[in-house]
Amino acid sequence: MLQGKKTFLRPLELDDIPIFYQWYNNQNINYWANAAWPLSTMLSEEEIEERFFTPQKDGSRYLILNEEQKPIGTVGYRDVNLPARSAVLFIVIGESDYWNRGYGTDALKVLIDYLFYQWNFHRLSLDLWDGNLRALKAYEKLGFKVEGRLRQARFVLGEYRDGILMGLLRDEYLEHHPPHPPQGI
């Protein structure tokens, strides 16, 4: 288990499927997470298991736990490019009571530290839609920089919206986030 200041990350377990079922079938969560509502809602538990709990060759997904070990979201990486030492990150805080309280930023920092310090990744990237300003601010706080826009790449509630591409290089991150020894649990 990896620990941050406010969060813990642990691998997924099959017992987590019901909580993913709640999160990924919640219109509000899907709207902010990927602007895909209502297209990505109404997944069955079997579809949740296949989509999120099947081992991937090029990435991993973790459960985010709060200080009391309550599941509040998921974070992970995909599209690993070993020669370039890069990956694409993603995060969803599935419990809206934990929005705007620093839990997502903390969990993402734990994962970034893990990938840069333990796995020696060189570059991490992520994407979001232009209406999710809360996520944009959180990513910028960690050092991500806007690298581009995908014009009208998302269709949200009847209108086309831009996708935003962001990137973070290891050297830039190390300048502002020096490594620190793990804290005891």
UniProtKB/TrEMBL annotation:
Q: Which GO terms describe its molecular function?
A: acyltransferase activity, transferring groups other than amino-acyl groups
Record-annotated N-acetyltransferase domain positions:
7-171
Family annotation (Pfam families): Acetyltransf_3 (PF13302)
Q: Give the superkingdom in one word.
A: Bacteria
Q: Which PROSITE patterns match?
A: GNAT
Enumerate the InterPro entries for this protein: Acyl_CoA_acyltransferase (IPR016181), GNAT_dom (IPR000182)
Checking PANTHER family in the record gives: GNAT-FAMILY ACETYLTRANSFERASE, SPERMIDINE N(1)-ACETYLTRANSFERASE
Q: What is this protein called?
A: N-acetyltransferase domain-containing protein
Species name: Desulfitobacterium hafniense (strain Y51)
